[in-house]
């Protein structure tokens, strides 16, 4: 597998103050703050998660909003209790990960095959260069918020999810992955959305993006693995 990765081993000579996150995507959610520990313990988190999935995630899928705004597929539920007398905080943080059961239809297992994107060095270098150009263009755009970036092999440019849905075989999905090991809910939810839109079996090629550099102007090299 070839992943575009920047980790701590790639930061030799880089000012430590620059550590942060060049690749980032805002995630919205719901905060439920309780007044007593008894109330906190009686909350049915599983049911509240299902309700939130139905209210927001399924609405985004059904309306097609996620195609132009994929960040709408990433949600969380945070339930908390703050004991201000003892300065003790209890909370339950729950990222929402959709599946066939929660959505009510079976769409994922039969339609999608995902695999890590393997490419010749020249093609991978072209993707890197295009990605850097894209990040440079969007870095200071306060309204830009997307956990995925689609690359078109035909045009050599960044494309939209709508173009990917028309022809998955000529596009590569790059996604900002906060998980160091297993695929995160970010890509699982996006893949679910893709599966609801395609009519035939398709292969989606993936590149995981991870970094610890906060500004595009920093001197660094992409590391692949």
List the helices and strands and how they pair.
Elements: E1 4-5, E2 28-34, H1 37-42, H2 45-63, H3 65-68, E3 75-83, E4 88-95, H4 100-103, E5 112-116, H5 121-138, E6 148-152, E7 158-159, H6 161-166, E8 171-176, H7 185-197, E9 202-210, E10 223-224
Query: Roughly what is the average pLDDT, rounded to an integer?
Result: 75
Quantity of strands, as a count: 10
Give the end-to-end Cα distance, rounded to a whole number of Å: 6 Å
Helix run count: 7
Which class of secondary structure composition applies to the elements? Answer: alpha/beta
Task: Give Rg in angstroms.
Answer: 19 Å
Q: Strand-residue fraction?
A: 15-25%
Largest sheet: 7 strands, mixed
What order do the helices and strands follow?
A: EEHHHEEHEHEEHEHEE
> Poorly predicted ranges (pLDDT <50, ≥5 residues)?
1-20, 105-110, 213-219
> Which of globular, elongated, flat, extended, rod-shaped describes the shape?
elongated
Characteristic key phrases:
3-stranded mixed β-sheet, 24% strand, elongated, 7 helices, disordered N terminus, 10 strands, 225 residues, single chain, 7-stranded mixed β-sheet, 31% helix, alpha/beta
Please outline what is shown here.
By secondary structure, the protein is α/β, with parallel strands linked by helices. It has helices spanning 37-42, 45-63, 65-68, 100-103, 121-138, 161-166, 185-197; strands at residues 4-5, 28-34, 75-83, 88-95, 112-116, 148-152, 158-159, 171-176, 202-210, 223-224.
């Amino acid at each position: 597998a070839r992943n575009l990765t920047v980790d701590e081993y790639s930061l030799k000579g880089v000012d430590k103050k620059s550590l942060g996150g060049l690749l980032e995507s805002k995630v919205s959610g719901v905060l439920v703050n309780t007044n007593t520990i008894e109330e906190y313990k009686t909350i049915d988190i599983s049911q509240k998660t299902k309700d939130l999935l139905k209210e927001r995630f399924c609405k985004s899928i059904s309306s097609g909003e996620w195609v132009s705004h994929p960040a709408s597929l990433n949600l969380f539920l945070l339930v908390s209790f703050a004991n201000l007398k003892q300065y003790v905080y209890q909370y339950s943080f729950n990222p929402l990960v959709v599946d066939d059961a929660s959505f009510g239809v079976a769409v994922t297992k039969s339609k999608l095959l995902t695999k890590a994107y393997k490419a010749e060095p020249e093609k991978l270098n072209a993707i890197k260069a295009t990605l850097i150009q894209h990040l440079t263009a969007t870095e200071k755009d306060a309204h830009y918020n997307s956990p995925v970036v689609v690359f078109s092999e035909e045009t050599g440019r960044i494309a939209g999810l709508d173009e990917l849905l028309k022809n998955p075989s000529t596009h590569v999905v790059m996604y900002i992955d906060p998980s160091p090991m297993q695929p995160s809910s970010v890509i699982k939810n996006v893949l679910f959305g893709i599966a609801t839109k395609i009519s035939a079996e398709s292969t989606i090629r993936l590149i995981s993006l991870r970094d610890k550099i906060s500004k595009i102007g920093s001197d660094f090299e992409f590391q692949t693995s």
